[in-house]
């Protein structure tokens, strides 16, 4: 049976932040199966009964969604400037979900939304090198030399980006614009925009088309769907 640290279970259930949950434990406010627990790192399973200050802990079921984020939406659960955030689209569901990673405000495309913190952390860890494919509308039509630089790994800021798969999907000679497909496994800030700007082709519009084996197929901007059991298992493995 799967077990998790008590403070993590409390934080995931929305009792308090993990640090505040630790204080509640230390202060003797938390009981597991009727007994006060003051030791941090105590492991609990789904069968344990947890009470915090006399109230039973309601544990959320883990949920997983694939979301087509529109442009002009923040990849966050709240925004101090009052702008639209991704969780606004999930007001109908009872669980509190959050995005795995982020997409820029003006970038649209595929985001995974979940309340499974373990899976989210693993998916974002650089060690796993999950391919993410973006479709970029750029100013100008990249030549073979530019595409080759992207494939070898272009220098941006003070680091060299990992080699990317790159190809022109379509081009408009009259308007001097092109659609470029770029596949990367890193996820640094503004990375795709910076890579294309570094080879001389600034991005005008950007959409994330796929995340690993997941695609936007069947969704329009602002839509979401639950992941299938098979998809969840594939992500976990």
Automatic annotation (TrEMBL):
GO terms for molecular function: RNA binding; rRNA pseudouridine synthase activity. PROSITE patterns: PSI_RSU (PS01149), S4 (PS50889). InterPro entries: PsdUridine_s_RsuA/RluB/E/F_cat, PsdUridine_synth_cat_dom_sf, PsdUridine_synth_RsuA/RluA, PsdUridine_synth_RsuA/RluB/E/F, PsdUridine_synth_RsuA/RluB_CS, RsuA_PseudoU_synthase, S4_RNA-bd, S4_RNA-bd_sf. This is Pseudouridine synthase. Keywords: Isomerase, RNA-binding. It is an enzyme of class 5 (isomerase). Coiled coil: none annotated. GO terms for biological process: enzyme-directed rRNA pseudouridine synthesis. The lineage of its organism: Bacteria, Bacillati, Bacillota, Bacilli, Lactobacillales.
């Amino acid at each position: 049976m799967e077990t998790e640290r008590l403070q993590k279970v409390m934080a995931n259930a929305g009792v308090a932040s993990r640090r505040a949950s630790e204080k509640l434990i230390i202060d003797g406010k938390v009981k597991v199966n009727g007994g006060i627990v003051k030791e941090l790192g105590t492991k609990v399973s789904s069968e344990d009964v947890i009470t915090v200050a006399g109230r039973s802990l309601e544990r959320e079921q883990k949920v997983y969604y694939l979301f087509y984020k529109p442009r002009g939406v923040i990849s966050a659960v709240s925004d101090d400037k009052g702008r639209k955030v991704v969780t606004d689209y999930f007001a109908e569901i009872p669980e509190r979900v959050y995005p795995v990673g982020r997409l820029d405000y003006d970038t649209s495309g595929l985001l995974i939304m979940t309340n499974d913190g373990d899976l989210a952390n693993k998916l974002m860890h650089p060690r796993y090198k999950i391919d993410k494919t973006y479709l970029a509308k750029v100013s100008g039509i990249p030549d073979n030399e530019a595409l080759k630089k992207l494939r070898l790994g272009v220098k941006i800021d003070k680091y060299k980006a990992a080699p990317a798969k790159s190809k022109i999907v379509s081009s408009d000679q009259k308007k001097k614009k092109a659609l470029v497909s770029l596949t990367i496994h890193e996820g640094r800030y503004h990375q795709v925009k910076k890579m294309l700007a570094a080879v001389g082709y600034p991005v005008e519009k950007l959409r994330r088309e796929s995340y690993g084996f997941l695609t936007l197929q069947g969704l329009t901007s602002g839509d979401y769907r639950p992941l299938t059991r098979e998809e969840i298992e594939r992500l976990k493995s």
